[in-house]
Structures are given as structure tokens and as C-alpha cells.
Amino acid sequence: MHRHNTPRRTQVALALLVAAAFVGGPAAAKDVTDADILNDAKTPGDVVSFGLGTQGQRFSQLAAVNTGTVKNLVPAWSMSFGGEKQRGQESQPVIHDGKMFVTASYSRLFAIDAKTGKKLWKYEHRLPDGIMPCCDVINRGAALYGNLVIFGTLDAQLVALNKDTGKVVWKEKVDDYAAGYSITAAPIIAKGKLITGVSGGEFGIVGRIDARDPLTGKLVWTRPTVEGHMGYVVDKDGNKKENGISGTANATWSGDLWKTGGAATWNGATYDPETNLIFAGTGNPAPWNSHLRPGDNLFSSSTVAIDADTGKIVWHYQNTPHDGWDFDGVNEFVSFDFKDPKTGKVVKAGGKADRNGFFFVNDRTNGKLLNAFPFVNKITWAKSIDLKTGRPVYDDENRPGDPTAGDGKKGKTVFSAPSFLGGKNQQQIAYNPQTGLFYVPANEWGMDIWNEPVAYKKGAAYLGAGFTIKPLHEDYIGVMRAVDPVSGKVVWENKNYAPLWGGALTTAGGLTFYGTPEGYLKAVDAKTGKELWSFQTGTGIVAPPVTWEQDGEQMIAVTTGWGGAVPLWGGDVAKRVNYLEQGGSVWVFKLHKS
Hints:
Layout (H helix, E strand, L loop, with lengths): L1 H21 L11 H5 L20 E2 L12 E8 L13 E3 L2 E6 L3 E6 L5 E6 L18 E3 L2 E5 L4 E6 L5 E6 L14 E3 L2 E4 L11 E5 L6 E6 L5 E5 L5 E6 L23 E4 L4 E5 L20 E6 L5 E6 L15 E6 L6 E8 L4 E6 L5 E6 L7 E4 L6 E3 L19 E3 L13 E3 L4 E7 L1 E7 L13 E7 L6 E6 L6 E7 L7 E4 L3 E5 L4 E6 L5 E6 L9 E5 L2 E8 L5 H4 L2 H5 L8 E7 L3
Parallel strand pairs: 1-34
Antiparallel strand pairs: 2-40, 3-4, 4-5, 5-6, 7-8, 8-9, 9-10, 11-12, 12-13, 13-14, 14-15, 15-16, 17-18, 18-19, 19-20, 21-22, 22-23, 23-24, 25-26, 27-30, 28-29, 29-32, 30-31, 32-33, 34-35, 35-36, 36-37, 38-39, 39-40
Pfam families: PQQ
Cofactor: pyrroloquinoline quinone; Ca(2+)
GO molecular function: calcium ion binding; oxidoreductase activity, acting on CH-OH group of donors; pyrroloquinoline quinone binding
């Protein structure tokens, strides 16, 4: 009897489950697909990638919140990260299927009900005592893929969790934290691969971009960003195969310093599906003392374009050859198209506001330099960028002096602008295809800098330089600027007393959003820069806002919490803004319904 009744009961149970689904029963959680990620910039109901699309434009087609309605924007909810773990909060939230995922300081990850702000679960990574983050215990965000949410940690691991339960699905060690490696950037997904970089250039690590299977964490390929190091591909059985040296050994590095050459990829990457290229910005060469390492020191302080399938470098452009000021080049390379005013042809380009103070426009198919112009007022290290050669016209008197030319203990001090914290640092730019403008959170500051002798020691700071950062003006440091990448002109600017350290968001509603260390989230007219709305969140904002549509309403979100590199490395600037309070929250806004 039981043999006949059990199938019948199963059929009835299945029928009831199906019926429940049609009458509002619990729906199955949706996975994040490759198509979702490729279409992220065009689908308003979610934000599934860092940059609101893999190209990193940070542009939303939503327009319900616009120049006319933004005055009615009010808080919908706020959630605190809690506890004593404050410090800088640089994370961009990702939102999918009614849930928000946001990372926080000290390698934490929160899942939140995107409608109510209720915490669904929290993951706290257990960090060892010996971590060595150079520039605060921050994290910039997570990646979504399938039913996983994936992020990097300060002890150089990648962790993938079930996005519905918070349970760890896989965990992979990326490198040795005791040697200075860490991860602070948000991963991205490119063509079904998890793309990550590494931090630690101040400790003599070797920068690289890794591609992994996002469902397992297993390595697919790895591409070093210091010339002379071997790349590898890895088969499904875990066998490594050599995939060519990056560049040519010793071509731009003399001696053995390339073995600890820096060029960290600490700000992550962008991906352009049209060219199938991953664009990674690379950090400073190590050590800072440039007299120890003659040559251009590829591929440091550069944009490197990597084939997503093969892991090979297709092209590179070096923004600061033979960097002697810690200018890095990690700033994001944002794909965009423009019409050439001379030929009328559409150009596939990329824009980058570099820490060295120049805005660069390159052909994203081959790296050719198309335009380069200052986006800050004071640049002392170079007089210009030669558009024919693509190289800077150095001011040789502004390179910090060689210690061996004097007493051997300290080289000539120079005053240099911008400071090593950059004309733009980690704070993300945005591009609006409707205005044709980039929105750049810039800073005007300088530094006294000098070189010192140094030798590499595993896990120790590897600078060979000293510095003091100084403001250039009494009334402002930060400046939000709208720049035209074709003409090279600054269209408008808004000054800010404290340095700007959070990213930008721009929308089809004619708005640009950004936050300030003083705690204000602001909305300005994207065409004119006129401030139309602001809200005081109670702590500094050093993260980029995002927007999405939920239940027919446009939502705006931003992570808040003062910190990052400025209070740690800022010298006189840090003293000037030491009144700012720490914190840690997510704020969400929507239009008030009258």
C-alpha cells in the first residue's frame, strides 16, 4: 500500500508547492548571470557590479530623481555597521533581488533588506594580528555571481558566501599578508571570470591581476604588472603553464629591483566587452627613491590592457614613467565613446584622471594617447604631456634629489604638486554620455618630499623617501570638477574645504551626486554644477553613491564613515581636518510622497 501511496503524496505535495508559487508563496532566489552583469548599466532594477557596469561609467538611466524633483529627496532608512570597528568606509553597495550587499572596515560584509534596511546577516572575517594595510583598514566592495557574493580581505584572501544565508562557500589565499599583500579593491566579473588585484606597493610586493573561476575560486590565469615576471595559465586540474613574461626582462629595470617592484593593482579593474579587454591601473614602483631604479620601470604607474581570455597584455600606456613622487597610476580607466570633431568618426576611448594631475584619454583598442590635460591647477613635476610621443615633459629640478649626491643620508628636498595623495586618488570618477562630461573629485595640495637610502626587507615599509603634505589654499582642498575629455576644458567646479575622497554618480535626471568628508551627500546640476540638494549624514563620506529602482521608486544609497589615507598620511592636511568624526553606516534616500 505504501509503495502506491508515496508517489501520489509526492505529486500532491509538488502540486501544492507550484500552486503556492502562483498565489504569492516564497519565490526562489535569483542568481546573478553573466547577462545581468553585462547589462548592469542598462537595467535600473539592480546594481550588480562595481561602477554600475563593468566599464565603470557610474551613469544611471534613471530620471525620476531629477533637477526638478531632487529637492524632495528624503531618507528612507539608515543602517549602522555597529561596534567599535569604525575607520574609513569606502564601499560601494551592490543590490540584487531585493537585497543590498555592502562591505565595511576590517573585512566585514553585510546583507541588508534593500527596502527596509533590516540586517539579514553579517560576515566578519577573522584577521590575523600581522596585517599591513598601507592606507586604512578599508574595503571598496563585493562582486555578485550566481548565488555568491565575493570580496577580498586585508589578509589577502578571497571569500565567497552564499548571498542568501551568509555561509562560506569557498575561501582562497591570494598571497602572503606577512610580505605586505592585502586586498582592498572590489572584484569584478569579466566574461565569467572573477578579476582581482592586490595591494601592498609600499612593502615591495609584485602587482598582478588574477582571473579565477567565481564558483570555485580556482585560478584561471595570472598576469604580473612588473616587467620581468612570468604569467601563468592554470588548467582545470590545477596545473600551471607558463604564459609569457610581462614585457622584457631588465629592459626598463636595471639590476634586481624588479623582483620587488611594486606596481600594485590596489584599485581593481574595469572591463570593456566591446574589446574584451580588462583595464587595470598600476601603482608606484618600489621603492619611492627613483635614483635606485633607473629606467621607465614598466608596468608601474600605468594603464595595462589585458585580454580577458588569454591573460596576455595587449597594450599599455605609462602615465608616469620612472615615477619618483608616488603618483601611482591605479586610477580607473573608464570606457566611453566620442565623436572626433575633426573627422566626425566615433572613437572608442577611455578616460583616466591620474594621481599625477593630468587627465588622459586613450584609444581603448590600442592605447594610443588621444588627449592629455591638467585637471588640477598646480602641477610641478612635469610641464606638459607631449601628445606626439605620449611622454611627460619633465621639470628635472622637481625630482627629489639623490641621497648619494650629498651626505648619503638625505637627498635634496623639493616642493611638488600635486602631493602623492594625488590630484585624484581612490575616489571614483563618473561619465555622463548625455553631457559628454567626466565628473572628477579632485584635490589641490602639494608636498615637501625627499629621498633616503633603503633596502628591501620582507614585510617592512619600502619607501626610501620622506614627505610632508601641505594644503595650497586656506579656503579649500577638494574640488569637484566637470571636464570635457575632447576639448580638455574644465566646464565647472565646486570647491570644498576638506579633501574630496568619495566617488561620483551621474544620472539621466541631469544630476551628479557626491559626498564630502564634512558629511554632506550632495546633488548638483550635471550641466552647471549648481547645488540643488544636500543632506548631512553625521560622518564623512569617502565612498561612491549608487542608484537603482525599487517598487517603482528611484533609490539613492551611499556608505558613510570618515577615514582612508588622508587622516593617516595627510601631514598638515590631516591636522586641518582632525575635527571630523568617524562612523559607519549605509544611508538610503527616495523621493518624499506628498
